[in-house]
Amino acid sequence: MSYEILSGLVLFAFASSITPGPNNIMLMASGVNFGLRRTVPHMLGVSLGHGAMTVLLGLGLVQIFDWVPWLRTALTVVSVAYLLWLAWKVANSAPPADAKQDARPLTFRQAAGFQWVNPKAVYMSIYAQTTYAPEGAGWVGAVIVGVVFAMVNLPSVATWAWGGTQVRRWLDGPVRLRAFNWTMAGLLVLSLYPLILGSGD
Question: Residue 194 domain-assigned?
């Protein structure tokens, strides 16, 4: 991979990872409600899960959408349903001191699995592989793109989780915290707009 292509990939990975999206919205909410330490598995699940998905898509899974057209619609339906459920959970999160014992942030496995129904993450992976994977490099190129993306993604998403812990000091009252959680839930729902709009193409 040339320096120019690698630089372009790093810049794209950073720009797409640091901007608002379902992952970052949920990580900020997790930082507010659970703190940075308990959000670490969530962060690792996002970065490593997205990196693994990027590799697999680069190895040929992206062609499935061409072979099985209805799979795109099915993915849209699952994505919408799952994001709405996550938005409901975020909206009804309670402060750690008041939360039930079963209230906890997403686990590593849940966060990694979520990448497959996160429309922004899927688009990022497909674009990265089709634009930056070295031509003729085969599986090596797919792996390089996935690894670079994961390395750039981790500090980017960590920034959002850390930001949540900083915002937390201004959300010391239950009314403010509930307002924040409902705002984050609303942003999650709004993030569905491009997905729903695109499904009509």
Answer: yes
